[in-house]
Design a protein that fits this description.
The chain is built from 7 helices and no strands. The longest helix is centred in the C-terminal third of the chain and has 31 residues. It is globular and about 55 Å long. The mean pLDDT is 91.
């Protein structure tokens, strides 16, 4: 049956894979001069494939033990490349984003474990609904970028753009709460052990999303 130790082990394995391929993705990017952002052409297809793998795993949880490592490997390449692009523009921004992500993760885990914040059905509906809305927005943004169009204000370093990034980073943090709740309820219900990978995948998706949003927020603040 599913255990907290098993979930921790599965999640650790996924992050080891992510860090390994992340190093590869980092070195696959040639640093561009400051002010000249050079995004690798393979990045967008990799993002779409990783998203497809994660979505497929959502509908086939028992297959997560095979799909989660694939997602971790592809997402590692993506994160490594994106991180190098940001680091080439703003020195030290990656380590700041990593530290802030760890702090937010620890804070949300503390709030959940002490029951200062409780996951209710209403909270779950609000967070899931907002997450779906943001996901749809990002999908539209990606499609527009293919045709050379961009969303005004949202990606700017002005007050609206910064407020948007703070909101999305907060939403990613509350998704961690849902992941913690899913892990706890899964153990209590005695779900099959292979679903530990599904819970680990959920945690990884939320942490990766949180890291990227913090990275984008820091970049806006630097600008």
């Amino acid at each position: 049956r599913m255990t907290m130790g098993g979930i921790a082990s599965a999640t650790t394995v996924l992050f080891v894979i992510l860090l390994g391929t992340g190093a590869v993705g980092w070195w696959m990017v040639d640093p561009a001069p400051v002010g000249d952002v050079d995004v690798p052409g393979w990045l967008l297809p990799a993002v779409l494939v990783a998203a497809g793998v994660a979505i497929f795993a959502m509908f086939r949880p028992p297959l997560a033990r095979f799909l989660a490592p694939v997602y971790a490997a592809i997402e590692g390449l993506v994160l490594g490349a994106i991180s190098h692009v940001y680091e080439s523009q703003w020195d030290g921004i990656v380590i700041q984003a990593v530290l802030l992500t760890a702090i937010v993760f620890a804070t949300m885990l503390f709030l959940y474990s002490t029951r200062i914040v409780r996951v209710t059905e209403r909270m779950r509906r609000v967070v899931v609904g907002a997450t779906i809305a943001i996901g749809a927005f990002y999908l539209v943004t990606i499609l527009l970028s293919v045709f050379g169009a961009t969303m005004p204000l949202v990606w700017d370093a002005g007050p609206f753009g910064i407020a948007f990034s703070v909101f999305v980073a907060g939403l990613a943090a509350f998704n961690l709460m849902l992941d913690f709740d899913m892990a706890e309820r899964g153990v209590q219900m005695g779900l099959p052990k292979n679903l530990e990978w599904f819970v680990g995948l959920g945690l990884m998706v939320s942490i990766v999303w949180l890291y990227l949003e913090i990275l984008r927020l820091l970049a806006k603040l630097r600008r």
